[in-house]
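Hi C.,

You asked whether I'd gotten around to modeling the 260-residue construct. I have! Everything is below, sequence then structure, no commentary in between.
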Amino acid sequence: MTFAMRATLLPCVRSVFACAFACVLGLLPLAAASNISWPNVSLPAGSSAYQIGEQMSVNGMPMRLKGFVTRTAPLETAAWFRKSLGKPLVENVLLGKLVLGRAQGDYYVSVLLEEMPGQNGGTRGTVTVTNVKTAFEQRDSTRATNERMLARLPYGSRLVNQLSSTERGRATAYILARNGHSQQLNRDHLVKRLEAEGYLLEREAQPDAKQARNVPAEVANGRTLFFKGKDKEAMAVIRPADEAGSTIVIQTVNLVEEIK
């Protein structure tokens, strides 16, 4: 999954759990008593499916995601999933998209549906299966991981989102953080910490005058850093925050064989 895809995916996943997480917490005592494998969510006949992530974790929640498109209209597609998923079923509309959700043992299944752009109609969807029991059991480990990632940034940094995935022999970790410090202070602190982890700064880029005219001001005033190490690489984007301080995005990629 690319850097841009993660930036697009995180708000969507976060929105799904905004409506579902309270329901899931209420079902945790029941989930703890079961031990079933990942649920397989059926798709409407004629759907074209594609994998988004087979081994992912978003903010400490292990999950699997797949996308699909179908020629049927959103209302018809939603009716099919209401029947297929069964009851009880949680329904909500987030960011203009319909979300259906249901707890299944240790897992929570959600289906996000939206109308395909263009004149041909159809539906585009995302199926997310989350292992709620494992997320609850690993909350201390997740907290320690988040603290380790935030240590790359100056004191006072706040973690906004964290995503990790393992696919095609590559383990990727992505974080979005904010703090009240300047871009330069964040840049210097991050370079020092990543170098200590074996990531050496290769180059640094900023939009030139021509590019800056075609992008939002916060992007035009930001900078991108590229790092390289043995069997690993990293990229960081540092830009002004909406009000004050800085927003920092860091992505690291390691070969799975190097992770013990």
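If it helps when you're writing up: The longest helix spans residues 3-31.

Thanks,
B.
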